[in-house]
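Input (structure):
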C-alpha cells in the first residue's frame, strides 16, 4: 500500500521568515498585517481546541499551530495525524 504524501507548513516560522528576511527593510508597513495574521491564526487554533473538531485539529497540526504539530517542540507528536484521520473517518461513518 502506497502512503499518501502529506505537506505541512510551519506557519509561525513562515510568517516570521517573511517579516524578518523576505521583506525589504523599508517595508515596515507590511510587518504589522503579517503579525496580525499570525495572531489571528493562533486565535483560530484556540477556537479549534474549544470546538474539538478533528478536522480542524488536523489542519492546525499540519500548519504547526499546535505544539504537537511543531517538530521543534518537546510536545511534538508524529502520531497525531494518523489518530486524527481515524477520528475523522469514524465521524464520517457515523454521519452516513
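Output (sequence):
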Amino acid at each position: 500500500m502506497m502512503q499518501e504524501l502529506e505537506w505541512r507548513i510551519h506557519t509561525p516560522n513562515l510568517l516570521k521568515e517573511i517579516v524578518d528576511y523576505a521583506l525589504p527593510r523599508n517595508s515596515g508597513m507590511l510587518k504589522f498585517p503579517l503579525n496580525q495574521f499570525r495572531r489571528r491564526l493562533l486565535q483560530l487554533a484556540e477556537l479549534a481546541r474549544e470546538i474539538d473538531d478533528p478536522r480542524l485539529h488536523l489542519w492546525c497540526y499540519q500548519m504547526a499551530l499546535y505544539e504537537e504539530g511543531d517538530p521543534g517542540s518537546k510536545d511534538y507528536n508524529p502520531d497525531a495525524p494518523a489518530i486524527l484521520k481515524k477520528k475523522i473517518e469514524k465521524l464520517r461513518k457515523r454521519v452516513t
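Notes: The chain has a mean pLDDT of 87. Residues 11-95 form one domain.
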